Amino acid sequence: MVSLLDVKLWRDLKRLAMQVLTIALVVACGVAGFVGAFSTFRSLEASRDAYYREARFADVFASVRRAPASLAPRIEAIDGVAALELATAFDTQLDLPGVEQPLTGRITGLDLLQPPGLNALTVVAGRLPERGAAVAEAVVNARFAEVRGLRPGSTLVALLNGRRETLHVVGVVLSPEYVFASRGGAPDDEWFGVVWIDSERVETAFDMEGAFNRVALQLAPGAQRAAVIDALDRLLEPYGAWGATGRDRQLSAAIVDNELRQLQVLGTVLPSIFLAVAVFILNVVLSRQVATQRQQIAALKALGYRDGEIAAHYVKLAVAIAAIGVALGIAGSLWIGHGLVSLYAEAFRFSHLAYRTVPGIAIAATAAVALAAAFGAWTAIRAVVGLRPAQALQPPAPPVFRPTLVERLGYGRRVPPAAMMVIRNIERRPLRAALTVAGIAAAVALQISGAFWTDTIQLITDTQYRRVMQGDVMIDFVEPVGLDAAAELRRMPGVIDARLLRSEPVRVHARGRTIDTVLTGHEAGDELQRVIDVEHGPRPMPADGVLLSSLLARELGVGPGDTVEVEFRLWHRRRVALRVAETAHTLFGRTLHMDLAALNRVAGDGHGASDATLLVDPHAEREFFAAVKATPRISAVFDKASSQRSFEKTTARNLGFFTAVLTLFAVAMAVGITYNAARIALSERAWELASLRVLGMTRAEVSVLLLAELGVELLAALPLGALAGWGLAALLMRAMQSEEIDFPVVVDPSTYGVAALTVLAAAIVSAAIVRRQIDRLDLVAVLKVRE
User: Fold this and answer.
1) Other beta carbons less than 10 A from residue 144's beta carbon
2) Which tens digits make up the pLDDT trace of 290-302?
3) What mean pLDDT comes out for the span 459-469?
4) Which secondary-structure segment (H or E) carries 707?
5) 525-560 residue pLDDT tens
6) Could you give the C-alpha distances from 726 to 437, 484, 661, 737, in angstroms and in order?
7) Taking CA 437 as the corner, what is the angle to CA 436 and CA 438, rounded to the nearest 5 degrees?
């Protein structure tokens, strides 16, 4: 049997339909963001873990210049090592039919005589190469194959140690080492591919018979990873080792882990804002609902309904609104989750990846919303429900009025009467006004928190592609070259200028800390590849000492004037003490920089370079790239323009979805707050407005009188929202920072402007709806109610 209170509940929901919908939308945004982001996180995490197990992804990785395969038993004997995999891999040029620029490929040997071991490949099309095939068979990583249209039957040309060889693609594969395939951390599926061929061909081509330059280890349960890494480093040190790392620092795995961590942060911070705002709106609406139903509550108590039953009725009202929001939020989470997974599927290649709503997360979100709604309802009604029937039948005591601040300052006579009414109404309820301002400011902040990423990416693009690298092409040499190589490069077709660089893997020691990183030597006066401090601009190489990135300096706890010990990992493997000349706030990496001549001097192994940056005439690019393809000692090519287009295309797609979601959420929040604020004000002041209409004021004048209060709150909220948006952006950036990334918080003026206009538009729509309700006021009915 339906009780009287249930009938009343249904009628209240119908009467408050628009307010119920706007509150439910805010709740839905919080639930959708929380459930969608966290379920995506769990889906990615489960897919990652399952794929790593299936493919036997290694726990420890090390690179070495060249080490004998006879070391295998000694490596396997290290305490804690359960299995090992030796391999040979080299970066080299790839030439695809119809592609003018040379691409960079990582040619990796595949032992076809042994069953799949660690880091096993998963075939998604075709098959693996066969030993002893008449032609050179190869498989390529799936993302590169997809972007470049490669499939079984395609061919490509690889420069194998100076000799061009045609490779016949027989399969497309996935590899746990290249879930995110990149040379340096940025998405580069279009210009970087991984190619596996018979290990015998790699060893023969690169003179690596009986040797290896990559090793991967699987650890036994309970093994101490740090001890294994130390033992492996000692064993490989005489052969020019780069330094062993755990899986957490392997490039692909580290990028995947960092993305998961960022997703977890976004799924926590932003939905929490929505839920807090929803509870605030719900509390305000229910407070007003209770205040207008004092006499109904008194009648219910007189009819024998207990305080608990009446309280439960209003809690049900709050929970019903929350339930609508949860239902909409769960539906929205499916859209968000599938959208996020589709974006991640573009970047990360697991054997299986599908979005699944995690029931536990949905239940947790539902419980949190229900508890918040019930708490908000109880705080709104506890004072009235506790009244005796005789007290509840009486109207609430009128508020105590006193002169406003403007009047106390002596300016009351100069303020128009309508404006004074607005001022008095705000001062009468300062807490409500402050909370409304805070809610609108939160909507502005949320919009900024979704849009500032575009500003950050713009900073990265401008810094890395326009300010750091002012050349057009960067090349890597197969082996170190002499300083006379710059003159040879300048003689290539289209080359306007060429500058040499030397990049050395080093181990830096300071204050008891040790970090593996890269030391780069720059030619004096090099303007093609610069070190840029994002706060102070270009930094010339010091004549004496080293320049440290701020990330490395912070990690080591050193600053200008301190001394660090630099241990070279290749060639002579010297250990030298160098003075820190200065630090620079660079965006990426824990790196060191110094003058090339000084680097060659302290390294003690002659005068050489490993890389070069070139300035190329754009009208001669075709001839230049043809010459590069014909130069055997160039192993890899980085074309700035092509890489920049690829980077901007990828980031635009990802940020577009993310920004669109948060913009929709911000609009929903702004509408929910502004509409409810205006609607509640109309309910409270309906008698007053009707009286003013009777006294001769027009509908427009009455509307302005009511909505002016909202306008004042809106204008106060915009600058606060801008400030809060910057703070939220800083909080998100801080939560997402890693040891390899040091992005400043960047919010362009246009981002503040768009956020303000978005919220203003939402407020105008809400005001228009309330204005229509003002126009439809039944003056007689409203005035009779007051009587």
Assistant:
1) 23
2) 666 667 777 777 7
3) 88
4) helix 699-736
5) 889 999 999 888 899 999 889 999 998 999 999 999
6) 17, 50, 19, 16
7) 90
pLDDT in tens, 559-601: 999 999 998 887 777 889 999 999 999 888 888 999 999 998 8
User: Helix/strand/coil (H, E, C) string of 343-398?
Assistant: HHHHHCCCCCCCCCCCHHHHHHHHHHHHHHHHHHHHHHHHHHHCCCHHHHHCCCCC
**Amino acid present at 187:** P
* Chain CA centroid to CA 495, Å: 38
Q: Where are the domains of the chain?
A: 56-254, 433-468+640-787, 495-616
Nearest to 477 by CA among 639, 635, 637: 635
Other Cβ atoms less than 10 A from the Cβ of 393: the count is 15
Cα–Cα–Cα angle for 206, 210, 215, nearest 5°? 85
Inter-axis angle of helices 430-461 and 251-292, nearest 10: 160
Share of the chain above pLDDT 90, in %: 32
**Three-state SS string across 73-93, please?**
HHHHCCCCEEEEEEECEEEEE
Closest of 31, 113, 177, 150 to residue 668, by C-alpha = 31
- How high is the pLDDT of residue 69? 93
**Token code pair at residue 579:** 């003075």
User: 278 near 23, Cβ under 8 Å?
Assistant: yes
Q: What residues contact 487, with CB distance under 8 A and at least 6 apart?
A: none
What are φ and ψ of residue 219, in 5° steps? Answer: -95, 150
Under 8 Å between Cβ of 725 and 449? yes
Q: What pLDDT was estimated at residue 632?
A: 86
Angle (CA) 479-588-560 rounded to 5° is: 95
Q: How far apart are CA 654 and CA 465, in angstroms?
A: 20
Tokens of 343: 């974006």
| DSSP element (H, E) containing 286 | helix 251-292
DSSP state of 306: -
Sorted by sequence, the CB contacts under 8 Å of residue 787 that are 6+ apart come out as: none
Residues 6 or more apart whose CB falls under 8 angstroms from that of 784 comprise none
By CB atoms closer than 10 A (0-12, 13-18, 19+), residue 145 is buried
**For 46-121, where are the E strands, in sequence order?**
60-68, 81-87, 89-95, 103-110
Short-list 636, 648, 637, 613, CA closest to 187: 648
The structure tokens 């015998």 sit at 200
CA distance 279 to 371: 10
Residue 786's contacts (CB-CB under 8 Å, 6 or more residues apart) are 687
